[in-house]
Specification:
By secondary structure, the chain is an alpha/beta fold. It contains 16 helices and 13 strands. The structure holds NADP nicotinamide-adenine-dinucleotide phosphate. NADP nicotinamide-adenine-dinucleotide phosphate binds next to helix 1, helix 4 and strand 7.
Length: 312
Amino acid sequence: MSQIQTRPTILVFGATGAQGSSVAYRLLKNRGYHVRCITRNPGSEKALALEAAGAEIVGGDLDDIHSLLDAMQGCYGVFGVTNFWEHFEKEFQQGKNLIDAAHQSGIAHLIFSSLPSYSDLSSGQLPVPHCDIKAALENYARSLQIPATFIHMPFFYENFFSFFPPQKEADGNYYFGFPQGNTPLAMTSAEDLGPIVALIFSCPTLYMGRTVGVVGEDRPCKEYAAIMSRVLGVTIRYRHIQRDIFAGFGFPGAEELANMFEVQRLYIPRRSQHVMESYGMNPGMQSFESWVLRNKTQFLELLNQPEYAQEI
Ligand code: NAP
């Protein structure tokens, strides 16, 4: 960190994860910035790969504001993201540490990955902490009047590899299901965030104070199922599962995810404007079809794994 940088320095959080890695690698590719990545494990494979690609790696932890203040020294900008699914309710304090550090450091531009309050959208009926906490963090950053832009990421295409892999059933076909009904589900690949964040950093006056919704596709789930079926050559169907049934599945986060889909089904209309703006900001946004095609081998391997292929 003692080296004098001629290019503005941007500190990237979550650079070993989905969103931050897309941002860090895009900023490195642009060559206009010195890219500093903060991680709890500077020796991890992903951190070493970032270093090999030209990033500066610094150790730090969202639980420790002093480490964040150190990492932000001399920075022009910060890309911030917090991870609810590892830390749960602690996400608020961690995000607050990030925002407070950005405020105290006087950085020129914070781009923070937040989400709308699903609790507010449902008039308090359907709390969704991983969204509601991020909305509270966005409000907190706005209350401090720090120079910031907020990014709202939708459901990732990549969730079909993690949270919602299609499962083979007794009829030989594959199914995925949740309480989204026929309401279009906004989605995107986390990989497509980087160019959008890079553009926002390069045009601060245009985006300062704004919330940008990133959306690559906005279709009913049965259309996503049809696309997967066509590209992968197997039959995949979407099944609507009612909120109360999904909430009772008993896995950690089942109720929260049930509420998330229910809010989207009932209260989130088409995201056409976000689709148009996203493709305008990043013409390389992947359609769901192009993403499935590019990941066809990995998808077919997943579907053929015994744990997914077994009849249920
Ligand atoms: P991810 O791939 O799950 O990786 C988590 C990242 O957070 C890692 O880079 C990790 O870095 C970093 N991290 C975690 N705890 C940290 C700590 N205490 N201090 C410093 N860094 C820490 O990340 P992601 O998927 O990009 O982001 C997760 C967030 O995305 C969640 O909050 C989720 O709600 C939100 N989100 C997800 C979706 C979706 O569809 N999946 C959609 C919208 C929003 P190290 O391990 O290297 O320290």
